[in-house]
Amino acid sequence: MLVLLFFIIAFHITSAALLFIATIDNAWWVGEDFFADVWRVCVNTTNCTEIGEHFADYSTLQAVQASMILSTILCCIAFFIFLLQLFRLKQGERFVLTAIIQLMACLCVMIGASIYTDRRQDVHSNNYHFYHLTSEGRYGYSFILAWVSFAFTLVSSLMYTILRKRK
Hints:
single chain; five-stranded antiparallel sheet
């Protein structure tokens, strides 16, 4: 049981770390001489511009920012609630509250990554210059980590749903 508990804690911490990296790091959309995320655009690795109201689709990027931040916060809250429930729950009870909060984190990261994917597909299909750069580029590792963290938080919420407090 102790090994299972360690695995679940390590899995949750890994999920939170992936969410932090995906939210903070500047590699959602990368090209040969630029990289961009939901916070700023950097050209030639030295000229970085914060994304503001002067950028196209700023309100869409704000939705992605909000959902990624909310998913990270919810994942951390779920971990602390899990630790509290670990010591407070009676034997045989399930970690339902932790599972619900982790599922909400999962949905938030899915919403954020889906919105970004949808806007990127619109940009590519319409040949629209997103971030005032050409649409030539590819999804970066932060974007991929966002989808991986979606899967991790989903699996984690399912584990908490199934998990019962035992001796």
